[in-house]
Here is the input.
Amino acid sequence: MSIKLDSIDQRIGARIRIERESRGWSLTELAERSGVSRAMIHKIERGESSPTAMLLGRLSGAFSLSMSTLMARAEMPEGRLLRRKDQPVWVDPETGYVRRHVSPRSDMPLDLVHIELPPGAEIPMPASAYAFQRQLIWVLRGALVFIEGAARHALEEGDCLELGPPADCMFKNESPHSCIYAVAVLRN
Here is the structure.
């Protein structure tokens, strides 16, 4: 039996299919480039499975897009104003990580994303998710551990970190409270 997910998951799946097809890639080719199984990609594209943050990071990296860009293409109409009530919210089904896209979709090469990372949550991201872009992480509330390759950064409220060259990364909340942070992505 096939289970249909909510409209955000369906839009994400449709966007992944559009990105894949626009490049002339088969499911097998995207699977090889991303390290995500062909079966899982097929389920995501059909709206039968909600992708995790880690899977979205791998898929967006295979497309040479940031996760923010992929999500923005799936979620939002173009325009200069994006009111809070219209800002797309996505929840990682595995960790409860909540992602709210704050910036309007436009030709400006900047995306702003608001994240809530639950206590104890860990979100791995492959280096490919950071290629072709620059990012800042700004902790708004709580504490965040950001592991960038071999470097460990312990960030507290108000701290802002510029990411270095692409490396496998991990966002970790080792505290008993939610961590709220913003990510600013500058696309090249």
The chain has a mean pLDDT of 88. The chain has two domains: 7-73, 80-187.
